[in-house]
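Reminder: ligand-aware prediction takes two inputs, not one.
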Amino acid sequence: MAADLPNSVKQLSDSGAFSSLPLQLYASRDPTAPSDVDATLEPQIPTIDLSLLTGATPRERARMVQRLGRACQDWGFFMARTFRVVVNHGVPEGLRQAMLEAAKKFFDLEEEDKEELRGETVLDPIRYGTSFNPKAEVGVRYWRDFLKLAVHPDFHSPAKPLCFSDVLRDYATCTRRVGMELLKGIWESLDLEENDMNKALKLDSCFQVFVANLYPPCPQPELVFGLPPHSDLGLLTLLHQNGVDGLDVEHGGKWVHVKPLPGSFLVNAGDHMQIVTNGRYKSTLHRAMANGKSTRVSVLTVVGPSLDTVVEPVAALVSSERPAMYRGWSYRQFLECHQGNQLKEKAVLELLRCRDHEDVI
Ligand code: OGA
Ligand code: NI
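Here is what comes back for the chain with N-oxalylglycine:
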């Protein structure tokens, strides 16, 4: 059956040949189920003003750090406003737009050009694909195409489209800087020493991945997921989209539709934040929904430790009352397991949980 399937949902959407498609293969939702979205939660999503973390008085910064800590503890995600940030600390709006446009142009390339980048293993530094991991997805696919690029410590970019690599280089640098500022504030909120954390996670050679997602219009969006509920694997993910909504985030057992504020990134804590903070800050489940009308593009920066770091709960957050909840694994091992299997909630993180902690989280 797989041989008859198109290589990408873009191709499928463009062709309009849905009748020849086993659309059930994409059907992973029950369209008759009652809505699990709580509309009252959306206005409560915490916002962090990056200009008050980087260019502010110590008092303003202390307040923002506290707010950041609360956002990480209570929600695991927040909106980070970067538009007022002083030069060299933010991400210029023009660059954010240029990145989205370059990503769209990439997906508009001929299918053969993209095919060359399909990659063999999940650690290939340039990887184009569809769904999450069709090799591991038995009988189900998700309605998205993706491009994943390792951009730090070594920078990788496709050669086409022509403008892509220059824009990506700047975008990767700027978003990494924002990620590092946020991490600095997060460590501070837990009374952890920045230098110790940089050393423990080898953040100078942090493994940074850039992801572009394309969600073309879907004929039956109520049946499919763009991406099913999952957590991201790194420390932090910074997401930006082309103005078409589709991201839902879980909070207190309910789902929240997220409409990013202008000039903001949606930031969520990843599994490695949960490991390193010994469960104080948790990674958030989120999902991407398809729609019937417009093409949605999202671009993500995932900031993580260096690939060879064995990540464990930091000693300062481990005590006899709160023993270490997770075993150490190298980031590379985690990444291989996360990307090489089906995408399923927090399945990989669960593998690392120490047995006697089943009730703590
Ligand atoms: C992801 C992801 C959400 C989105 O790529 O891990 O969660 O809105 N994407 O594209
Ligand atoms: Ni995600």
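The first strand starts at residue 47 and ends at 49. Residues 9 and 15 are 10 Å apart (CA to CA). We will return to this case in the review session.
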